[in-house]
């Protein structure tokens, strides 16, 4: 299937694909003002997740959605880090801010899966001094540690997984975090289809690893440093799929969202609680889900974007 749009080179060797609005709604005077940047998760790249294309068809004419390719897209995550992702996302944000500065364009970043960890790293982690965004959407921000541990338990290889973590930690402690672990006998490499560095293995699987933003067993004090650090001017939306296959069955998704929302509120952040929540019938990336399920997510996103736009207008008064 062909997709119309514009390919932007926002940095050397890095691009973002901006979906075109439906031609039936275009007019000669219509120009995009606000931008929704979308970043995927492990193994994702351009058009690997279907719902951004559906969002593109539903956006008002003053919004555009662009899918951002970073060095960690496709199999690049295996040798990357959230810190590198945050730097590259900041480059993409600055590019679109400059592109639409004349119209006062707003920027919202939407992450899917590990794209949510990228947003956290950008907003409250190592990237927080690099750029400002008007809104952040976390869709299926699952804990890799809990997801892979649960999967390993079901497959009877939990002992092997713990051994992999110990091996990765040993290499990192010796200053060999960039060493790529062998694929043979490596649960993670076989599952993801590529070999990972010791650092990225530890980051994904260890408690307190750099990727460990969304685990259900994190202490309130740890969440205060992440969700509690969201700046007031960045509106937050959190979405989970009811049938997300990477969230262990014993975890209460609605309860987890409410816990994070409480931390945001307690620390003075702003969250769209009207549109946040669990999307009924939705799987992890919604590929293949019924149209009404996808539309539920799309309408929540649209409602959030209108909220970002209205807050911006009020701030100018």
Structure description:
This protein is 39% helix and 15% strand. Strands 1-2-4-3-5-6-7-8 form an eight-stranded mixed beta sheet, with helices on both faces. With 317 residues, the chain is an alpha/beta fold. It is built from ten helices and eight strands. The radius of gyration is 19 Å and the shape is globular. The longest helix has 26 residues.
Put the structure in a nutshell:
With 317 residues, this protein is of the alpha/beta class. It folds into 2 domains: 5-20 and 32-143 and 214-316, Alpha/Beta hydrolase fold, catalytic domain (Rossmann fold, 3-Layer(aba) Sandwich); 147-205.
Features:
eight-stranded mixed beta sheet, 8 strands, 39% helix, alpha/beta, 2 domains, 15% strand, Rossmann fold, 10 helices, 317 residues
The counted number of beta strands is 8
Number of domains: 2
Quaternary state reads single chain
Number of helices: 10
List the helices and strands and how they pair.
Layout: E1 5-11, E2 14-19, E3 34-39, H1 51-58, E4 63-68, H2 82-99, E5 107-112, H3 114-124, E6 135-139, H4 144-154, H5 158-173, H6 187-192, H7 198-205, H8 220-224, E7 235-241, H9 253-266, E8 277-279, H10 291-316
Parallel strand pairs: 3-4, 3-5, 5-6, 6-7, 7-8
Antiparallel strand pairs: 1-2, 2-4
């Amino acid at each position: 299937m062909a997709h119309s749009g514009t390919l932007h080179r926002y940095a050397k060797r890095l691009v973002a694909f901006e979906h075109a609005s439906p031609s039936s709604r275009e007019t000669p005077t219509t120009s995009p003002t606000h931008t929704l940047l979308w970043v995927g998760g492990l193994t994702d790249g351009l058009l690997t997740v279907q719902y951004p294309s559906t969002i593109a068809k539903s956006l008002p004419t003053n919004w555009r959605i662009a899918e951002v390719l970073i060095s960690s897209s496709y199999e690049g995550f295996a040798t990357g880090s959230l810190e590198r992702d945050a730097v590259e996302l900041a480059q993409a944000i600055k590019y679109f801010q400059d592109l639409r500065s004349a119209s006062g364009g707003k920027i919202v970043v939407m992450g899917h899966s590990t794209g949510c960890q990228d947003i956290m790293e950008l907003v409250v982690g190592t990237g927080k001094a690099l750029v400002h965004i008007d809104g952040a959407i976390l869709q299926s921000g699952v804990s890799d540690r809990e997801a892979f541990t649960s999967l390993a338990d079901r497959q009877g290889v939990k002992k092997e997984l713990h051994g992999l973590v110990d091996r990765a930690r040993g290499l990192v402690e010796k200053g060999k975090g960039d060493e790529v672990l062998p694929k043979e006998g490596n649960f993670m490499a076989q599952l993801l289809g590529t070999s990972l560095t010791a650092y990225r293995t530890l980051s994904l699987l260890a408690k307190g690893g750099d990727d460990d933003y969304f685990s259900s067993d994190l202490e309130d004090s740890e969440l205060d440093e992440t969700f509690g650090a969201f700046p007031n001017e960045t509106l937050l939306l959190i979405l989970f799929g009811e049938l997300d296959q990477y969230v262990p069955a014993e975890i209460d998704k609605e309860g987890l969202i409410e816990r994070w929302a409480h931390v945001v509120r307690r620390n003075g952040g702003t969250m769209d609680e009207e549109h946040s929540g669990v999307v009924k019938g939705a799987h992890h990336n919604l590929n293949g889900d019924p149209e009404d399920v996808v539309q539920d997510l799309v309408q929540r996103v649209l409602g959030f974007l209108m909220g970002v736009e209205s807050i911006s207008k009020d701030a100018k008064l």
